[in-house]
Design goal:
34% of the residues lie in helices and 16% in strands. By secondary structure, it is an alpha/beta fold. A hairpin with a 2-residue loop joins strand 3 and strand 4. The longest helix is centred in the C-terminal third of the chain and has 19 residues.
């Protein structure tokens, strides 16, 4: 385990000003969309070596820590706008999972949920963050609730966003294709850009307009990095243990955020005292489709928890 390094952070602001860019808005703020090379670290990229895996992450803000975990076929960029909002009051940490983004594939090709859980626990320990809240979308939600089961002493709160983990949950088209024995060898080496666009369109809400050229460039570019497509196929074909029967043992205060049209969401039923909010129109990529809604829901939940833990003042 190495000391975390952020090689470009000191010159980040100067570097960012030199980049040609076009600014666009998706419900919140502005983001850089043109002239980004997704194969290279950005000004605020950091890395930490955990065994044979060099984890890419970003850290922003100050205050209580919250770990944001992205879904399969995605990267930390899926939480970019949520992180920007939460970093006003929290220390927000976003890693790229092994097999995704700039972290890249594992040499041992081990993409079991329990391996991800162990990696994320070691990752936060390497950052010297002893206690934190964790929020995960899709696969990230699956890893988050398993982290809550394995390390309850580390978690202040748990937020599940269209999380996976119940066997009844339907699979996105991309995962179904990656499980096709005829297509698997091809997908390890080639995926047309139009297939990336079609898959993204299939997992957002019908009214969503977020799947534009910039988003397709980002997702397709990161998936096309060396080894990432093959890692996705390995993940899709990993025989994951069904631990859904253990979900009622979760003790961390839990917020469930789900889109109305997403199936296999029984967390609010099975986790004691869990709170649930339902988005009426978004699809699977809720943190990107409505980042303001997600960030406000998380902030309200965590602020209420903090308020409940403050000692009550009494008048003498």
């Amino acid at each position: 385990m190495s000391t975390p390094t952020c090689p470009l952070l000191q010159i980040g602001h100067r570097l960012t000003r030199l980049l040609p860019r076009r600014l666009t808005s998706h419900n919140f703020g502005y983001i850089v969309t043109d002239m980004i090379d997704w194969s290279k670290p950005s000004a605020d990229s950091c890395f930490v070596q955990l065994g044979g895996v060099r984890v890419h992450f970003k850290r922003a803000g100050s205050g209580p820590a919250i770990l944001l975990l992205h879904g399969s076929g995605s990267s930390m960029e899926g939480f970019e706008r949520v992180a920007a909002l939460l970093s006003r009051s929290y220390t927000v940490v976003r890693p790229d999972f092994p097999g995704f983004g700039l972290t890249g594939p594992r040499s041992d090709r081990d993409y079991r949920i329990e391996t991800y859980v162990a990696t994320m626990a070691a990752f936060m320990a390497a950052l010297n963050i002893e206690r934190y809240s964790v929020a995960g979308n899709s696969l990230g939600g699956n890893i988050a609730w398993n982290l809550a089961l394995r390390h309850p002493e580390r978690l202040d709160a748990l937020v599940l966003i269209n999380a996976t983990g119940y066997p009844e949950k339907s699979l996105p088209a991309g995962l179904r294709l990656a499980r096709n024995p005829l297509l698997r060898p091809l997908l390890r080496h080639w995926l047309p850009r139009k297939a990336t666009r079609a898959n993204l369109r299939s997992i957002v809400g019908q009214r969503s307009t977020i799947v534009d050229d910039a988003m397709v460039d980002r997702v397709h570019g990161l998936m096309s990095l060396p080894g990432n497509r093959s890692a996705f196929v390995d993940l899709a074909n990993t025989n994951q243990a069904d631990r859904s029967a253990e979900i009622p043992r979760i003790v961390a205060p839990t917020l469930v955020l789900r889109s109305a049209g997403i199936d296999g969401q029984y967390f609010a039923r099975d986790i004691s005292a869990a709170q649930e909010r339902i988005h009426p129109v978004a699809g699977h990529l809720l943190p990107e489709e409505d980042p303001v809604w997600v960030a406000n829901a998380i902030a309200d939940f965590l602020n209420a928890l903090r308020d409940s833990l403050r000692p009550t003042r009494t008048t003498p």
